[in-house]
Amino acid sequence: MYICSPLQTVEHPLFAHHHVTVQIKRDDLIHPIISGNKWRKLKYNLTFAQQHNKKGILSFGGAYSNHIHALAFACKHNNLASKAIIRGEASYQNNATLSAAKSWGMELEFVDRATYRQRYDTEYLKYLQSQHENFYIVPEGGSNSLALQGVGEIITELAEQTEFDTLMVPVGSSGTLSGLIQADDNQHNILGIAVLKGGQYLEDSIGQLLDQESSGLKLKQKHTRWQLLTNFHRGGYAKFSREDEQRILDFSLQTKLPFEPVYSGKMILALLDLLEQGYFPIGHRILLVHTGGLQGLAGLNEQKRLKLAGWQVPSIF
Ligand SMILES: *Cc1c(COP(=O)(O)O)cnc(C)c1O
Asked: Which residues, judged by CB distance below 6 Å to any ligand atom, belong to the binding site of ligand 1?
C-alpha cells in the first residue's frame, strides 16, 4: 500500500501575530489503526520479513506503545505472526492498547525493568533469536535502518506538496528524526522536539542510525541543518501538567486538529513557546509532521490521566 498523506494549512491567531505560516503533514490520517510514523517505520520492515520468509516479527515496547499497537495490526494483515516483549506486569494485558494487540493475534511476554533494559544487548538478542526461530527482531519503536527508508518518504512526498523552511517533529527513540535528516539532505532546517527527559543522549543514537546509512561520513559534516531541542519534555516521557493539557486541548479545538499529550502535543507546546520567544524570523514557513499516536489517548483516558473534558478518544480496535 502506498499512501501520500495530506498536507493542510493550520490557522491560529498566534501565527498571524508572529508573521509565520504553519502547515501540517497529516500522517495521522494514513490509516485509522496503523498511522503516523509507526507505519512509515514498519513499511520496509514488513517487506523485509516477507521477502525473507520470516514467520513473524518480534519487538519491544511499553504497555501503551504506539509501535506495538501498529505492529500487531500490520503483522496480522501481512500474514505474519507477531510477538512483543513488554516492560511491566502481566496485568497490563487488559489495557486498551494491549487488548487490541492481542485481538490481532500478538503474543505478549511481560518482563521486569532489568530484563527490558537488555533490549539492545547482543547476547540477549541472540538468546531471544534462539527462542524464536525464524522471527525477525525489530528494535523498540521500530527504529532501524529500514525504518529510516520508510520515514524518508515523508520528504519525497513533501517535495511534491509544498515549500517550507523548518520542519518540526516530536522525538522518542529518534528513528523518525534520523530518517527525515537523511532524506532531506540539508535542504531544510529540521527541528526535533525530545519528549523525554535527558534527551541529549539521542544525538548519539541519531549519529549511529545515520552512520549505518552514510558509509561512515561524520554526522555533522554531512547534515548540518538539524537540531534536537531537549528542553520541551515537560517533566519526562508521558508527563504533562494540567496547564500543558489545557494548552494542547485548546490548540486542538482552535485548529480542529487532533493531538495527544505524549508526542504531537509536546511538539505543539514547543511550537507555541518558540513563537513566544521570537525563535522564528518573520515570514518563516513552518512544517509540522503529525506523527499519529492518537491511540495513546485511549490508554491515558483509561488511566484517568486526562483531566479535561473535550478530548476525542478514538476507538482503537
Ligand atoms: C513513536 C512516536 C514518536 C517518536 O518517534 P521516534 O522515531 O521513536 O523518535 C513520535 N510521535 C508518535 C505519535 C509516536 O508514536
From this structure: 36-38, 66, 141, 143, 170-177, 263-264, 291-293
